[in-house]
Design goal:
Layout (H helix, E strand, L loop, with lengths): L3 H21 L10 H13 L4 H20 L26 H9 L8 H14 L3 H5 L6 E2 L4 E5 L5 E5 L2 H14 L23 H14 L8 H14 L4 H8 L4 H4 L1 H17 L4
Antiparallel strand pairs: 1-2, 2-3
């Protein structure tokens, strides 16, 4: 099954081919496609009001498409090599305050059969800064509570050890009491967080749980499971954590990805000065 990124690239290549066919007809050989044609295609996208991020992804997909043709000896050179992508401003993610996170967790109904599970999940998301897929894939055999760590399998099946708070450990241990009454099959018996049918939770279900809790707690920010990861990293940086340590805990391949949280920290400092400095 193709990944969402691969499927997006396929759609983008199809859009480009459809546009070329509409302009030149179905008999245009790939060798005749020029960078000017591709620039005209991108300009047409721009006139349609397609955002810069989507345009950048389209151009990346086009480059990959023509590079494949080069490697397959269909064409001699990639006409998209000098095609410029629009500049994208780095969008800062939404972040929750500690008080807002506490309000969301306090909105969980612990009398509900899945209440303790949901509380354990949210404490783990925030305590460890996990991606939602890392949370759904978390295994009981990868919990090392005596050492204060969990083993996380991230992107590209890369593993990392992440510290886990005593609070998250306590909520997981309380949840495990309920989980012991479930009867998962062989594929799910080592998965920590299960649905009421004793199967692994879906990403969509966790998204729905968090949206519902945000609504109940009066949080109007547009949040998702990833918001807990952003909040985890932002609060660490605000507290003075070393950026390399944050990078390791998040499982970022590049330190540049982690550096977005230094921008968040600067924004926080700037807004604090504006609010409290007598010359602001």
């Amino acid at each position: 099954m193709a990944s969402p990124t691969t499927e997006a690239y396929h759609r983008d290549a199809y859009k480009m081919v459809s546009w070329l066919v509409s302009k030149y007809g179905p008999d245009l050989p790939a060798q005749k496609v020029s960078v000017d044609d591709l620039k005209e295609f991108v300009e047409a996208l721009n006139k349609l009001g397609i955002g810069t991020r989507t345009q950048a992804r389209l151009i990346s997909g086009i480059r990959s498409f023509f590079q494949y043709l080069v490697l397959s000896n269909v064409i001699n050179e990639n006409p998209a090599d000098i095609l410029e992508a629009p500049k994208i401003g780095r969008k800062l993610p939404e972040v929750l305050t500690v008080e807002e996170i506490d309000k969301i967790i306090a909105a969980i109904d612990l009398s509900h059969p899945q209440g303790q599970r949901n509380k354990a999940m949210l404490e783990t998301l925030y305590s460890c800064g996990l991606r939602v897929s890392e949370l759904t894939d978390l295994k009981i055999s990868n919990l090392y509570f005596n050492e204060g760590f969990i083993r996380v399998v991230g992107k590209g099946s890369k593993e990392r050890l992440v510290p886990i708070s005593y609070r998250a450990i306590r909520e997981i241990e309380l949840y495990v009491i309920d989980r012991n009454h479930l009867e998962p099959d062989a594929d799910n018996e080592d998965i920590l967080f299960l649905n009421r049918r004793s199967r692994k939770l879906s990403r969509v279900m966790i998204f729905t749980i968090i949206k519902d809790l945000a609504r109940k707690s009066g949080i109007t920010k547009n949040i998702s499971p990833h918001t807990f990861r952003h909040s985890f990293a932002t609060h660490l940086v605000e507290g003075g954590a070393d950026l390399r340590a944050v990078q390791m805990m998040l499982g970022h391949e590049s330190i540049q990805t982690t550096e977005i949280y230094t921008h968040l920290d600067r924004d926080y400092l700037y807004s604090t000065i504006l609010e409290f400095h007598p010359r602001a």
